Amino acid sequence: MIEDLRTILIALTERLGDETASSALAYGLSLAARAPARVTVQAVSVRLVVPHAWISRFVGMVVAAENRRLRDLAQAVAERARGDAAAAGILCTAQAEHLSDDRLRASFSAQARLHDLAVIDAEPRMLTGDRGLIETLLFESGRPLIVVPPGCETFAARRILVAWDGSAQAARALHDALPFLRQAERVEVVVVTGEKDLTHAVPGVEVAPGLAHRGVAVTVTDLPARDGDVAGALRRHATEAGADMIVMGAFVHSLLREAVLGGVTQEMLRACPVPLLMAH
User: Fold this and answer.
1) Nearest-CA neighbor of 180 among 243, 122, 136, 237?
2) From residue 243, how far is each of 101, 187, 232, 239 by CA, in Å?
3) What angle do CA 9, 21, 138 make, to 5 degrees?
4) Mean pLDDT, rounded, for 121-132
5) pTM over 0.85
6) Residue pLDDT, tens place only, 225-238
7) Is residue 12 domain-shared with residue 61, that is, in the same domain?
8) Which of these three, 148, 171, 206, is where a domain ends?
9) Both 12 and 122 in a single domain?
10) CB within 8 A of 150, min separation 6: which ones?
């Protein structure tokens, strides 16, 4: 049983041109069965909008047909979620909506604020000129988020890596992950060195006593980053250690710098071998 986890939001989207199969639904239901927790599944299709000044009757018919298809997909996902949850004995509320992109993000953020945790699929491509759904949930919901990579459909948290850089964001993620850390067989606090000056940061070794006091079996590892590649070092270490989950704080520079230079947050969201629990 995972203590203190009582409500989970599973956020699912259907978009034009996105053929990636969802893993978040199966993973979220698997997690809810272990908790146990009540689930809300919000399946939203993104409504296509074409400016009237540029639309012909034929184009309007095509757009309308595609919107109907997307709406039907969202309804089918919600129905499948109800069936899968009922078969697993999970209390579940599933709803389908058809919204514009900006309303979709506002709706998901509002729902996430009402739950202990949100679960979402990794986005197939990270947006640089606009905020993606993951970023919106991280910075506007006030709740932790688990980002599920493709093909990961069963919850596991025997071995957890905690990425620690001494920041407030890392501390928040660590705290929000406590329900999972208490249940883990092994927790490894990883401090990646060589990318930025951590001289005045709270050392990773000072995190361990507090976790141990909560009954967490914890070790601390200093991990060198090759050529300053923090995300690459974390990904490689997670694979080598057989980790089931990575916990890290979400940090974003200015939008311009993030769009030009990237960042650890963006790189981990773009490609992570295991589910990523993030908080801000």
Assistant:
1) 243
2) 34, 9, 15, 6
3) 35
4) 61
5) yes
6) 887 789 999 999 99
7) yes
8) 148
9) yes
10) 20, 21, 23, 121, 122
